[in-house]
Amino acid sequence: DFDRLEALVTRAIEIDPGFANAYTLRSRVLLSRLWVLSDLTDEQWTMIGSDIDSARRIAGDTEAVLAAQTSLEYYGHMDYGRALETTRAALSRYPNDLLLREFEGLLLRRLGQWENAIDVFQELVDREPSNPSYVGTLVELLHSMRRYAEVISTVEAFERRAPPDSYVAEVGAWAREAVGRDPEALRRFLDTWRDRLDPDYSLIIELNYLRDSGRTEDLSSMLV
């Protein structure tokens, strides 16, 4: 709910105009909205740069300010090379900041450096093994490299220590299908998570399940 989130952060700035992290958070909220929905107004675009400038004026180049700058280069301008340079310069100052490290991994993936991206997210998972975002991105990277056995072992380790997560479970289902040619892994995933998934996305998985399980008549009827 980007509208509500933006309103809450804006209210925080109204209450305390000297709260630097509120400005950086609002800029990142707007950039996330752009990435997901592609519908920023001219006023919101202007606000992103203004918020980053305000935060820098108040607090200097903190971790949050540099992460906001990286977000602008990444999600706003899609200048992945420059964003990676900004991120690594920030990490030289704040080597333990996990958000900056996550950005580094995501940017390495965008730049096609898959093995390096895997190394980054493996480090993040080692540091926060119950974080579903880190685990989900790691297993997605491993799956893209067809390292299916590692996907399954990583998913199983996560499931032993953390609450279930649809992102992690889905990639695990795809890997189990690939390793064992077991389309029922997708069926089990759908049976568990369908109510929490977007209906269109559930349909896509259902179509893949029907295709991979050889149920061509059912697949044809759904496509019609």
Topology as a string of helices (H) and strands (E)? HHHHHHHHHHHHH
Helix content: over 70%
**Residue-averaged pLDDT, rounded?**
93
Strand fraction: under 5%
Low-confidence blocks of residues:
none
Which geometry do the CA atoms define?
Answer: globular
Count of helical regions = 13
Defining traits:
224 residues, mainly alpha, 13 helices, 80% helix, 0% strand, globular
General description of the model:
With 224 residues, the protein is mainly α. 80% of the residues lie in helices and 0% in strands. The protein contains 13 helices and no strands. It has helices at residues 2-15, 20-37, 42-59, 63-76, 80-93, 98-110, 114-127, 132-144, 148-161, 166-180, 184-193, 199-212, 216-223. It is globular, with a radius of gyration of 20 Å. The mean pLDDT is 93.
Q: What is the topological layout?
A:
Layout: H1 2-15, H2 20-37, H3 42-59, H4 63-76, H5 80-93, H6 98-110, H7 114-127, H8 132-144, H9 148-161, H10 166-180, H11 184-193, H12 199-212, H13 216-223
Helix pairs in contact: 1-2, 2-3, 2-4, 3-4, 4-5, 4-6, 5-6, 6-7, 7-8, 8-9, 8-10, 9-10, 10-11, 11-12
In short:
By secondary structure, the protein is mainly alpha-helical. The chain has helices at 2-15, 20-37, 42-59, 63-76, 80-93, 98-110, 114-127, 132-144, 148-161, 166-180, 184-193, 199-212, 216-223.
